[in-house]
Design a protein that fits this description.
Shape: elongated
Largest sheet: 10 strands, antiparallel
Low-confidence stretches: 1-16, 107-121
Structural class: alpha+beta
Number of strands: 12
Helix content: 10-25%
Number of domains: 1
Oligomer: single chain
Radius of gyration: 20 Å
Number of helices: 4
Strand content: 35-45%
């Protein structure tokens, strides 16, 4: 058990330091180097000897990590008109793209009289999924249950029927989007 913990700890530390990555700019150019994601910003450096620089949505389109030939892409997405851009993992791209955003909520511990001790505690991570058609300005947050999913994909009768007949489950959101892109997208 301790070996597994140590392995996971060192893997997380090495990921936090920097992974081989390619940074893609909005002008179509790219650069290879080492990167990581922290607080909705991309930290990137050309070599491990360089100091990392912070990049945001103004110039950068996305970053692609390449751990052992498994491409993992992150991009900046603005969830709605009022929100700031967030770095989201790209799960599927197509007529409808699927994004994943992991949120960790922090709160201050107060005593019975409302005095804060300055201790920050974190709630468990929440994974939120967003879908976005190519012609949509903002993505749609898919909340728990199939109601919003069926409404979003209502122009694809075969997909809605598969959902209603329990051929897809809530955790199958990536397969649902891929099915839509393969079968129903125009």
């Amino acid at each position: 058990m301790i070996r597994i913990f140590l392995l996971l700890f060192f893997w997380n530390v090495s990921f936090a330091q920097s992974n081989e990555a390619t940074l893609f700019f909005k002008d179509g150019t790219s650069v290879k180097g080492f990167g990581t994601i922290k607080k909705n910003k991309i930290q990137f450096r050309a070599s491990l000897n360089d100091e990392p620089e912070l990049w945001d949505e103004v110039l950068v389109e996305s970053i692609v990590f390449d751990p052992e030939d498994t491409f993992v892409k992150y991009t900046f997405i603005k969830p709605d008109k009022m929100s700031k851009f967030k770095v989201m993992k790209v799960l599927t791209e197509g007529e409808v793209s699927l994004y994943e955003h992991v949120v960790v909520d922090y709160f201050d511990k107060d005593d019975l009289f409302g005095f804060s001790y300055g201790l920050n505690h974190s709630q468990p991570e929440k994974t939120r999924h967003y879908v976005q058609r190519k012609n949509e300005e903002f993505p749609t947050l898919l909340k728990d249950g199939f109601g919003r999913i069926k409404k979003y994909f209502s122009n694809c009768d075969t997909l809605v029927k598969k959902i209603e007949n329990n051929q897809f489950y809530r955790n199958d959101i990536q397969q649902i989007v891929e099915y839509y892109n393969d079968i129903c997208a125009e």
